[in-house]
Amino acid sequence: MTVASHAPHPSSLTPHAPIGIFGGTFDPIHFGHLRLAEEMAEAIGLERVRFIPAGQPPHRAAPRTAAVHRLEMVRRAVSGNPRFEVDAREVNSPRPSYTVDTLAALRAELGEAQTLWLLMGADAFLGLTGWHEWQRLFELAHIAVAARPGAQLMQSDAMPDLLRHAVSHRQVADGSAAGPAGAVLLCRMTPLDISATAIRDTLSRQGSARYLLPDAVLGYIHEQKLYA
Ligand code: ATP
């Protein structure tokens, strides 16, 4: 595992203060991801958010961009935010990246008392029942879902009954959930209709992606001729 060096020194951290875990392909990372992490950190009171770029995501087609580049883009994007850190374990693993395995490993490292919040967007959450051993996720972490203002996620026709049932007795109104795992929090976030797919498309036709993602990431993309 590699955790970015600008992360706070472990001795400066409050024992068992809640930690956010944010996985994604990050191909490339953009302001939608960064605002989600920042707003959830504030809403829940997360001391740290650990970004974990997927190596080989099992739920979707292989990312277009080599893991080493996606990792570097995440490093550049989070640099300067003392609350954000990067964890390269999935990128460094030769096996498919199952979130449940990553959370189990983090739980083993950080201890049973550590409060963990798995962060995700509503689109990812609606597909949760397709994830490997998805029900075990609730044993390992709380889940915070970034929903748009007014979005009635629970009433959404897109929510499978299995998931609705799992959420119904877990939903909490705020981030002060008791215990280290098991709650579901639907959080509002500033709507930012930015996607990595749209950024890749824009760049592939030599369009401008400026102000959709950090300049440091865009600079790296140009330097490495990614998405051209
Ligand atoms: P792609 O377009 O390649 O599918 P993406 O932009 O959706 O990529 P991912 O890396 O697949 O990015 O997403 C990681 C996580 O970030 C997911 O939980 C997803 O729901 C969330 N997310 C991505 N973009 C946004 C956004 N604009 N607003 C809120 N959440 C987002």
Overview of this protein structure:
The chain is α/β, with parallel strands linked by helices and 228 residues long. It has one domain: Rossmann fold (3-Layer(aba) Sandwich). It has helices at residues 31-44, 67-78, 99-110, 122-126, 134-140, 161-168, 196-204, 215-224, and strands spanning 19-24, 48-53, 84-86, 116-121, 142-147, 171-172, 184-188. It has a 7-stranded parallel sheet with strand order 3-2-1-4-5-7-6, sandwiched between helices. The chain is globular and about 50 Å long. The two termini are 31 Å apart. The site of adenosine-5'-triphosphate has 17 residues, from α1, β4, α4 and α7.
**Alpha-beta content class:** alpha/beta
Overall, the morphology is: globular
Low-confidence stretches at least 5 residues in length (pLDDT < 50)?
none
Distance between the termini: 31 Å
Keywords:
binds adenosine-5'-triphosphate; 228 residues; globular; alpha/beta; Rossmann fold
Quick rundown:
The protein has 228 residues and is α/β, with parallel strands linked by helices. The chain has helices spanning 31-44, 67-78, 99-110, 122-126, 134-140, 161-168, 196-204, 215-224; strands at 19-24, 48-53, 84-86, 116-121, 142-147, 171-172, 184-188. The two termini are 31 Å apart.
Ordered list of secondary-structure elements with their pairings:
Elements: E1 19-24, H1 31-44, E2 48-53, H2 67-78, E3 84-86, H3 99-110, E4 116-121, H4 122-126, H5 134-140, E5 142-147, H6 161-168, E6 171-172, E7 184-188, H7 196-204, H8 215-224
Parallel strand pairs: 1-2, 1-4, 2-3, 4-5, 5-7, 6-7
Helix pairs in contact: 2-8, 3-5
The structure holds adenosine-5'-triphosphate.
